[in-house]
Design a protein that fits this description.
about 140 residues, alpha+beta, Nucleoside Triphosphate Pyrophosphohydrolase, 8 strands, globular, binds 8-OXO-guanosine-5'-triphosphate
Amino acid sequence: MTATGIKHIQVTCAIIERDGLVLAAQRSAIMAMPYKWELPGGKIDPGESAEQCLRREIFEELGIRIVIDGRLPAVTHDYPTFRITLHPFMACIETGEIVLHEHAAMIWLPPEKLPTLDWAEADLPVIRTYLAQCGVAMR
Ligand SMILES: Nc1nc2c([nH]c(=O)n2[C@@H]2O[C@H](COP(=O)(O)OP(=O)(O)OP(=O)(O)O)[C@@H](O)[C@H]2O)c(=O)[nH]1
């Protein structure tokens, strides 16, 4: 909880790169923020490290094992009904073929095309930081 009484959640997410492309996932009709695009991941469970959370969530959501090979600065964003701190990690696929267990769709995009998606608002600074690292400017 925050001082103002709204829920504050800690969420991990992965920038999964393969062959110069980045994986984005679209939330489904029955999820909160339907049809928004996000980086796969999810809420950190009690007693879990951020890395453990991310590996668990990615396996649950996509059926793949990942190797985490870096992280970007965490960002905090206030949605109307809750606050989120998003912990982004760089990752690549270790094993498995992606099967969508929760998302409506997924897409592999070159970094410069990422801004064309309708992202969950909390993700925008993460995408901006990632693109800056890739040498791509985002408005
Ligand atoms: N996984 C993920 N969640 C994000 C991102 N950006 C963002 O705002 N979120 C929000 O962070 C929350 C993550 O929750 P979750 O994925 O673990 O679980 P969920 O939406 O199914 O929520 P629920 O289990 O409480 O119903 C959601 O409200 C989601 O909209 C992101 O890039 N990745």
